[in-house]
Amino acid sequence: xxxxxxxxxxxxxxxxxxxxxxxxxxxxxxxxxxxxxxxxxxxxxxxxxxxxxxxxxxxxxxxxxxxxxxxxxxxxxxxxxxxxxxxxxxxxxxxxxxxxxxxxxxxxxxxxxxxxxxxxxxxxxxxxxxxxxxxxxxxxxxxxxxxxxxxxxxxxxxxxxxxxxxxxxxxxxxxxxxxxxxxxxxxxxxxxxxxxxxxxxxxxxxxxxxxxxxxxxxxxxxxxxxxxxxxxxxxxxxxxxxxxxxxxxxxxxxxxxxxxxxxxxxxxxxxxxxxxxxxxxxxxxxxxxxxxxxxxxxxxxxxxxxxxxxxxxxxxxxxxxxxxxxxxxxxxxxxxxxxxxxxxxxxxxxxxxxxxxxxxxxxxxxxxxxxxxxxxxxxxxxxxxxxxxxxxxxxxxxxxxxxxxxxxxxxxxxxxxxxxxxxxxxxxxxxxxxxxxxxxxxxxxxxxxxxxxxxxxxxxxxxxxxxxxxxxxxxxxxxxxxxxxxxxxxxxxxxxxxxxxxxxxxxxxxxxxxxxxxxxxxxxxxxxxxxxxxxxxxxxxxxxxxxxxxxxxxxxxxxxxxxxxxxxxxxxxxxxxxxxxxxxxxxxxxxxxxxxxxxxxxxxxxxxxxxxxxxxxxxxxxxxxxxxxxxxxxxxxxxxxxxxxxxxxxxxxxxxxxxxxxxxxxxxxxxxxxxxxxxxxxxxxxxxxxxxxxxxxxxxxxxxxxxxxxxxxxxxxxxxxxxxxxxxxxxxxxxxxxxxxxxxxxxxxxxxxxxxxxxxxxxxxxxxxxxxxxxxxxxxxxxxxxxxxxxxxxxxxxxxxxxxxxxxxxxxxxxxxxxxxxxxxxxxxxxxxxxxxxxxxxxxxxxxxxxxxxxxxxxxxxxxxxxxxxxxxxxxxxxxxxxxxxxxxxxxxxxxxxxxxxxxxxxxxxxxxxxxxxxxxxxxxxxxxxxxxxxxxxxxxxxxxxx
Length: 947
What we know:
Elements: H1 3-13, H2 24-27, E1 34-37, E2 43-48, E3 54-61, H3 75-83, H4 94-101, E4 105-110, E5 115-122, H5 126-138, H6 146-165, H7 172-180, H8 195-199, H9 203-213, E6 219-225, H10 229-240, E7 263-269, E8 276-283, H11 290-302, H12 308-316, E9 324-329, E10 334-341, H13 348-365, H14 369-386, H15 390-404, H16 409-418, H17 422-432, E11 439-445, E12 457-458, E13 509-512, E14 518-523, E15 529-537, H18 550-557, H19 567-576, E16 580-585, E17 589-597, H20 601-613, H21 619-636, H22 640-653, H23 667-671, H24 675-681, E18 691-696, H25 700-713, E19 741-746, E20 752-762, H26 769-780, H27 786-794, E21 798-804, E22 812-821, H28 825-839, H29 845-859, H30 866-878, H31 885-895, H32 898-908, E23 915-920, H33 922-930, E24 935-939
Parallel strand pairs: 2-6, 7-11, 7-12, 14-18, 19-23, 19-24
Antiparallel strand pairs: 1-2, 3-5, 3-6, 4-5, 8-10, 8-11, 9-10, 13-14, 15-17, 15-18, 16-17, 20-22, 20-23, 21-22
């Protein structure tokens, strides 16, 4: 989990409320809480939210990679992983396995400045989560063994391979940090660290780190949700009060940096297909008043079609599909980033000149009051979405308490943003950007170093060599640690469940407009927000065979202005309302999605109507979007996971089936699409058969009144969607050519192998779909599934392994997927093969009971957000489910016995009929996978046989 990304979103999202002086409710926005401190120094914040029967717990440790030393990098993140292993009073392996089985979710995240651990559970498991969370915090160090250390090293190394070594542009952060910060600066290395440093970690290192930084006085704890304040205080004192205070951890003072010269570096990327330029300027630490003006500056420079960088790089230069600029401030220092991933073959010298031109335009012409007003309005809406779940509230409270010294800092932040004026923005631009030195990276395809900025010096990074597995990489559970339990005045055994909360299906209303458009809604008044979607069936399935991608391109083009508004004017009109509207094409639908403040719903719908009925069909925007599509398709050729997914679908569905081709299409089909094709496809977007779904702070009458004009002005015929059934009952089923085969695709020097395995199963319209979904829980349903538990927890071969059945109108494949360490490819395939073969025969009564408990408990928290409730409406609309379908599915689950599960597994999870796809390093793995005993066929990245 990239916790810093969530915090950045919340941090920026809170900005707008400060600037809405005309809206008293917004400017005075706050989150209610109660704070107290235990005798051991642990600061505790409680927030009551009884909207759903769930509780979120977030523990923030004030230690990140900035506390590490050269030669021991990546240790804070590594310790986060170690913490999720065993502890004194919790059964071995339970931390990762039990919480999902209670219906909860859990994870953690480490960044430069801190580490967070968090869980969300149904309220009946509240005390259980305090038990397990406090045991992880205060009672884990005695249980750490050499076997656990060795196993977790492999997991973290796999995470680095997946996110850095095997990813396009994965090394860019390392290059920037090495050159922006002086040697020894706490930000001069990456959070995940280096593989040699991770491999060198010892048990003594783990103990030293824990004893130094994991004291109660170096942490904050937030509990948010359906709680009783007085009872929660008692429970917190019981479970967390005996955790040692720990030694005093001295605060780190801000360490902003300056550059004596601009540094330009280039890197030849093994995976990148497109050149990328980044320019990074040093700025200020978090909670510095200049941070807020820098946030606004980033939005003004690139956040709209009227912004100077967008005009110079995208619109005029036609050099890249987009450009971004943003400030990112951490505890000790900050960075202002300008980033553009260019079109294929574009010289980055041109991108640099275009950015310089945009900055010069900003210096000369500045910005309008309307642009500032737009940013403030958008941020107001984002504020509410940023705290729309109990977990996000917990994140905000715990972050601001630990790093801002005040859990209610949101109120101060709003006032600081409210005070920002034109002079503040220009001052920070002149102080931190204009004429200042920066670090510039040119990351280019490995065979195109000529695309780098002229004069750039080649950057060096440490890269792992793909080798055969050695004995040190084989790990196992190992023996349990021997230790004496830490004395306690409390019984620290597992507490009982509380009273079981029951999922209550929200009340759904339905109606139909005069133009045959269905309308479904759920009223939810917790926040002044409305979320809506208009769904038009068809999407990519209506693409002509040689013009795949047309539905998506048509939808994208409908965002680019109306008859009376240019793309920039439309964007501004939407932004001034604080709303968002987007039209997107997908596999089976085209969707119009929107978010707005409740008070602005009617005005937002007027703009939706304009976009739907009066698209601009701007040829200039069409040309830009087509180039953006081509750039995206070219980028997919660099992504091993995308290569695996695309070819898996092609093998499962067969030639000529729309599901066999990405909804983006291919480079060849994109070349066939014209503006006239988009105008013709637009005829498929009809209200007859479409559905408007809405959730939020709005009543049915307001919705239908707002849609009355659209209903009167827009009529159409129902669109016929061709059937593409590939179920086993269809004689035209194409998968017979790939069943039982293993297809290998070479991506040279891959540090991991991407695995996709599966076979055609069934449609979400099939009565057996829900049963198969239930039957998959034990095998691959999240971190408690056998795939994850074996391949990651037991063997350390991967960062994650899962199985699932996509929800589709037509037959979807039962799918198993993972990315495994390159030299563990064959062992991983053997484990999956045997696990699937044994799954049905070995399914037990205990597995049935576990599945029943897990699924029913999960439902209590699965539909908390507005978007999740919108998903309920999609199930009712798309698949014809009843308004109480969750209750009916729960009843179905409770009536299933062992034989019911076995029958479903034996029918739809048949290993012998599965297609295997492996994308990895041919030089080391091709001969290895042949040892699995399957027929091995080599393909190129486009799915063509290699001769």
